[in-house]
Amino acid sequence: MSTLLECKDLTKCYGKKTAIDHINLAIESGHIIGLLGPNGSGKTTLIKMINGLLAPTSGSIFMQQNPIGAESKKHISYLPDHTYLNMNERVRDIIRYFSDFYEDFDEKRAYDMLGKLQIDASDRLKTMSKGTKEKVQLILVMSRHADLYILDEPIAGVDPAARDFILNIILSNYEPEASILISTHLIADIENILDEVIFIDHGQIRLTASVDDIRMNNGKSVDALFREVYRC
Ligand SMILES: Nc1ncnc2c1ncn2[C@@H]1O[C@H](COP(=O)(O)OP(=O)(O)OP(=O)(O)O)[C@@H](O)[C@H]1O
């Protein structure tokens, strides 16, 4: 096990608003980590900085000892909270673009997952339901052989019956040495696949713990602990 990602004294301000407040964080390889926090706690801001889409106000981020940049992007597969795909495209054409763009993209894996979810690769995105579009985007992201997968709300639009199936697809399509950082409000649905959680609040880390420790020490599920910690 080695450190994949490190945030050192990381801060992001939007004008006078501090969205991320002097965060220190390390993500080890081979773990599935839930990034959990209430609305506006800073999850998406943190994720965007890790993906090089926002510049920190101060502090630094290192991916495999390198600062965030072109090299780190080769090793991070990112599912954003909003789609960036062209809705007019057919799935098979998008797969071809991804295959051309990312050296680590595995077309066979993408078609296997599409088949399991009975999604027709000749369909255009704009003809699909919101949940199916989300499944396609998740498949694209999980079809890369990345070292770190960052999923911002991966199952929000997927119906409850399909969620377990999607989670299994996530689990069966990443290498044991890779890590997955998942931001979600659907904690109860996802906590069974998590190894660790990070609770974030007002841009600060409130708790980092293994899911087993939470269950043993608190006698609670992660969902129950979250509701207790963040009770309004
Ligand atoms: N572009 C922006 N300009 C100004 N303030 C912003 C901007 N983006 C986010 N913020 C503020 O930064 C804080 C953190 O927002 P962020 O979107 O990172 O939270 P989040 O935890 O992802 O929220 P949610 O769970 O609702 O998606 C919030 O107070 C938000 O209003």
Describe the SSE topology.
Elements: E1 3-14, E2 17-28, E3 32-36, H1 43-50, E4 58-63, E5 66-67, H2 70-73, E6 76-79, H3 91-101, H4 107-116, H5 130-142, E7 148-152, H6 160-172, E8 179-183, H7 187-190, E9 196-201, E10 204-210, H8 211-218, H9 222-229
Parallel strand pairs: 3-8, 3-9, 6-7, 7-8
Antiparallel strand pairs: 1-2, 1-4, 4-5, 9-10
The protein binds adenosine-5'-triphosphate (ATP).
Bound molecules: adenosine-5'-triphosphate
Task: Based on the coordinates given, report the CATH architecture.
Answer: 3-Layer(aba) Sandwich
Count up the domains.
Answer: 1
The global form is: globular
The portion of residues forming beta strands comes to 25-35%
Number of strands: 10
CATH class: Alpha Beta
CATH topology: Rossmann fold
- Major β-sheet strand ordering: 6-7-8-3-9-10
Estimated helix fraction? 25-40%
Structure description:
This protein is α/β, with parallel strands linked by helices. It contains 9 helices and 10 strands. It has helices at about 45-50, 70-75, 90-100, 105-115, 130-140, 160-170, 185-190, 210-220, 220-230, and strands spanning about 5-15, 15-30, 30-35, 60-65, 65, 75-80, 150, 180-185, 195-200, 205-210. The chain has a single domain (about 5-230), classed as P-loop containing nucleotide triphosphate hydrolases (Rossmann fold, 3-Layer(aba) Sandwich), CATH 3.40.50. The strands form 2 sheets. The chain has a 6-stranded mixed sheet with strand order 6-7-8-3-9-10, with helices on both faces. A 4-stranded antiparallel sheet has the order 2-1-4-5, with helices on one face. Helix 6 (about 160-170) links the parallel strand 7 and strand 8 (about 180-185). Adenosine-5'-triphosphate binds near residues 37 and 43. One of its GO terms (molecular function) is ATP binding. Keywords: ATP-binding, Nucleotide-binding, Transport. InterPro entries: AAA+_ATPase (IPR003593), ABC_transporter-like_ATP-bd (IPR003439), ABC_Transporter_VariousFunc (IPR051782), P-loop_NTPase (IPR027417). This is ABC transporter.
